[in-house]
Design a protein that fits this description.
440 residues, alpha/beta, 18 strands, globular
């Protein structure tokens, strides 16, 4: 019945949202829809919203309004964190037909088709009380016909940490893990379809399996994935430092397929600020873990997230953070200004930092990050790194090294989806460049 109908997806926010969009797109395609090309009109637009900052909220609303102006008769559905947290905003806008939030997305095609059959424009609000949901909504991605090499796979949903700055536990609900068998089955299919690297993602990935009470953990999942023969690489998304198990570190030591790269969010380099954030570690503990990791997994790359301008963060606290960053020397830092989120404890804290100060602190961290990241890349000059060829840029294939560095391979005999040893001879603005090397 949907032959010829086209669907278009617009995704804001994180890699988890990107996976959710791909899974919903799969459902539409299985029901006879086709993906609209970049310049094609669609019958259905799905906006997967983000609410991690107020900017995400605003962009989500702007996107809906822009689609409605350009496509007055199309069906517009909203999903994701902002739709979950504030469905009434989308109801009042008058531009949205379907609201699904972060649950019941497996029924999105049914909701869209119900909306198509209605004569009024009253939106279908299918959001549920996410705090009462205790099971992982298992959806999968069908990538047949696509030519990509790296797949993001969501294995976990929700978060139990309740950092005082973060709205996401209220949007995504409590910890929910995907059954290990379901995750392994999907990744095995992706590998059979030509994907060579898988990135495990989740809202609170380090606690994967904790709610299943059957011995499942991130380490047991990775151990199973290592056995998939045509999967060349397994990369972990963001993991909280306090959740890194000895078993997982041991696998990273002994399984070459597991990338020597971890993203460990520090959020602040000041203990006073970490306490206000309700982070579950202090700096001595964090620094000790970093030292142990570097000793046990030589050459491991460590990247991080950082928030500046948290309420009450003084210049002295910020200087402590800069000193911490200089000491730890992450290979990459994602820095964000604190965003005041209504409904979180920190939104009502005294001593809110001005936007001007936040902006200036972001800039200072970015300048330091450039310096440290450049120093980090310099150590690869003359060395061989292994690169999974992904896409052509400026005439040459490029891809990521094990250490999460973008590398350009200056050779014409390269095939997408293959792993190559590359001898580094050039440091670029945001990565490295080199030529094919003999295997070492």
């Amino acid at each position: 019945m949907n032959s010829g109908k086209k669907v278009s997806f617009l995704t804001l926010g994180c890699k988890v949202n990107q996976y959710d969009s791909d899974a919903m797109r799969t459902l539409f395609i299985r029901n006879g829809y086709t993906q609209a090309g970049e310049d094609e009109d669609a019958d259905v637009y799905v906006v997967n919203t983000c609410s991690v900052t107020s900017i995400g909220d605003r962009k989500s609303r702007q996107m809906v309004r822009r689609i409605r102006r350009a496509h007055p008769s199309a069906i517009i559905a909203v999903a994701g964190c902002y739709a979950q947290l504030a469905p009434e905003v989308f109801e009042k806008m008058g531009d949205v037909d379907v609201i699904v939030g972060v649950q019941n997305r497996s029924h999105i095609v049914d909701y869209v088709e119900e909306a198509m059959g209605r004569t009024d424009r009253k939106p279908l609000n299918e959001t549920v009380d996410i705090m009462k949901v205790d099971h992982f909504e298992n959806m999968s991605v069908d990538v047949s016909g696509e030519v990509r090499t790296r797949a993001f796979v969501k294995v976990q949903e929700g978060c139990d940490n309740y950092c005082t700055f973060c709205i996401i536990p209220y949007a995504r609900g409590k910890l929910k893990s995907r059954l290990q068998k379901d995750a392994v089955d999907e990744i095995r299919k992706l590998a059979a379809q030509g994907y060579r690297e898988v990135v495990l993602t989740g809202i609170h990935l380090g606690n994967y399996g904790k709610d299943l009470h059957d011995g499942t953990s991130l380490a047991t999942l990775v151990a199973e994935l290592v056995k998939i023969p045509n999967l060349l690489r397994i990369r972990l998304g963001s993991v909280e430092s306090v959740e890194l198990s000895e078993d997982l570190i041991s696998i990273m030591q002994n399984a070459p397929k597991v990338c020597r790269h971890l993203h460990l969010p520090i959020q602040s380099g000041s203990d006073a600020v970490l306490k206000g954030m309700n982070r579950h570690y202090r700096l001595p503990q964090f620094k000790k873990l970093i030292s142990e990791l570097r000793a046990k997994v030589p050459g491991i790359a460590l990247t991080t997230d950082l928030i500046v301008g948290f309420p009450g963060e003084t210049e002295e606290n910020f200087q402590e953070t800069l000193e911490t960053l200089r000491e730890i020397r992450f290979s990459g830092i994602h820095v964000f200004p604190y965003s005041r989120r209504t409904g979180t404890p920190a939104a009502s804290y005294p001593n809110q930092v001005t936007n001007e100060v936040k902006k200036e602190r972001v800039h200072r961290v970015q300048e330091l990050e450039k310096e440290i990241a450049l120093d980090y890349r310099k150590q690869f000059m003359g060395r061989v790194v292994h690169v999974l060829a992904e896409e052509i840029k400026d005439g040459f294939f490029e891809g990521l090294s094990d250490e999460y560095i973008r590398v350009s391979i200056r050779d014409s005999h390269i095939e997408r989806g293959k792993m190559y040893p590359v001898r580094i001879d050039t440091i670029t603005e945001d990565g490295l460049s080199g030529v094919l090397a003999e295997e070492e």
